[in-house]
Automatic annotation (TrEMBL):
Keywords, alphabetical: Magnesium, Metal-binding
Cofactor annotation: Mg(2+)
Protein residues bound to Mg(2+): 68, 86, 88-89, 208
An annotated Gene Ontology molecular function: metal ion binding
Pfam families reported in the protein's UniProt record: Inositol_P
GO biological process: inositol metabolic process; phosphatidylinositol phosphate biosynthetic process; signal transduction
Family the entry assigns: Belongs to the inositol monophosphatase superfamily.
Name of the protein in question: 3'(2'),5'-bisphosphate nucleotidase CysQ
């Protein structure tokens, strides 16, 4: 099965990415700001990006390529399959010495994710999924939590997601709000069942969430944009309209409460 073969490729590439990134972590890597207030980037991001491109495209030369750290090419829009990667998701955390950064790698076919890996090198946690094959953490199956009530749920998201204007009648839910720098890691923690939901209620780059979307779905959860629409990837502008991920019942409740 092609999805399983692609997943094996992603797993090997993620481990190699971790080997590179760990050499720089907490060792004062060179850092600079990207143009247009697009945030910081480090020499580790670029070395990981170059390795991933060489390894993945070398193995699948007919696949397209979309990465946070590679100039975008519209040629990817004409490909049936493509890689969507974030070499280091949570670069600010990486630079600051916070261990909650990840490598996020996905294969997309026809706008849907077919294979995905999110790897957290510092803790050695590797989340993986292939379409129709379930989701795993270090090869053990994972499943989303059974939480059905939004009140009291553990929800990953920034403070901005809980401003009153995002919620019907300004009724902000009473949740246990948590945070991790990497969006891909937040989604994986929902898939693992350690947290009940995650929210990102602004335009979100595809490379931040493509891998996590499949991992949550294969763990039995639901993922949508902030309006409840299914996520589609390989868009001309590679963004989605926010992300909501949770178990099915809690996801439905979030859909009723968000505006």
């Amino acid at each position: 099965m092609r999805e399983v073969d692609d997943l094996s490729l992603l797993v090997g590439a993620a481990h190699e990415a971790g080997d590179i990134a760990r050499r720089y972590f907490r060792r004062d890597p060179k850092v600079w700001d990207k143009p247009g207030s697009a945030g910081p980037v480090s020499e580790a991001d670029l070395e990981v990006d170059a390795m991933l491109h060489d390894r993945l495209i070398g193995a699948r030369p007919d696949y397209g390529w979309l990465s946070e750290e590679t100039p975008d090419s519209q040629a990817r829009l004409g490909t049936d399959r493509l890689f969507i990667v974030d070499p280091i998701d949570g670069t600010r955390a990486f630079i600051e010495g916070d261990p909650s950064w990840s490598h996020s790698l996905a294969v997309v076919r026809g706008g849907e994710v077919s294979a995905a890996v999110v790897y957290i090198p510092v803790s050695g946690k590797l989340y993986a999924a292939a379409r129709g094959q379930g989701a795993t953490l270090n090869d053990a199956p994972v499943a989303v939590s059974g939480q059905t009530e939004l009140t009291g749920a553990a929800v990953l998201g920034t403070r901005a997601n809980f401003e009153p204007w995002h919620w019907a009648e300004a009724d902000v839910p009473e949740v246990r709000r948590k945070f991790r720098s990497s969006l891909a890691y937040r989604m994986s923690l929902v898939a693992e069942g350690r947290y009940d939901a995650m929210l990102s209620l602004r335009a979100t780059w595809e490379w931040d969430v493509a891998a996590g979307a499949l991992i949550v779905t294969e763990a039995g959860g639901r993922v949508s944009d902030r309006r409840g629409a299914a996520l589609r990837f390989n868009n001309a502008m590679p963004q989605v309209n926010g992300v909501v991920a949770a178990g099915p019942v809690l996801h439905e409740e979030l859909g009723r409460r968000l505006v």
